[in-house]
Amino acid sequence: KSGDDHETSVATKTRPKTQRPPLYKVLLLNDDYTPMEFVVHVLERYFGMSHSQAFEIMLTVHKKGLAVVGVFSFEVAETKVAQVMDFSRRHQHPLQCTMEKE
Ligand code: TYC
User: Measuring from atom 2 of ligand 1, which residue has the nearest CA?
Assistant: First the structure.
């Protein structure tokens, strides 16, 4: 019969799994030859960092060996890595930039 919905049914909230795209960390690696100023310039140019932010991250890489410089979708991360690698090679610096799934 109608009208006893509130007595007989159990309230159930379904929470459909929201699909989020995987994210990728872009990592900058230390080396002994790339000038510090060049790394700072790369971080400003390709990762939109301020000069002081870029300097700070550059020093972290220099001291710790590597640092995450950003987290992006696969396509954006791939593009950033390619841009940094190309720019570094054009300036004949051995700077390495890689990506890994978060
Ligand atoms: N270690 C380099 C130097 O002493 C500086 C450097 C920093 C290089 C960060 C790469 O990702 C890097 N000139």
Answer: 32
Instruction: Write down the pTM of the prediction.
Output: 0.84
Phi/psi at 24 (nearest 5 deg)?
-125, 130
Does 49 contact ligand 1 (Cβ within 6 A)?
no
Predicted-complex ipTM score? 0.98
Q: CA quadruple 45, 46, 48, 51: dihedral positive or negative?
A: negative
- Tell me if 26 CB under 6 Å of ligand 1: no
pLDDT of 68: 98
Helices (H), 9-91: 36-47, 51-64, 74-90
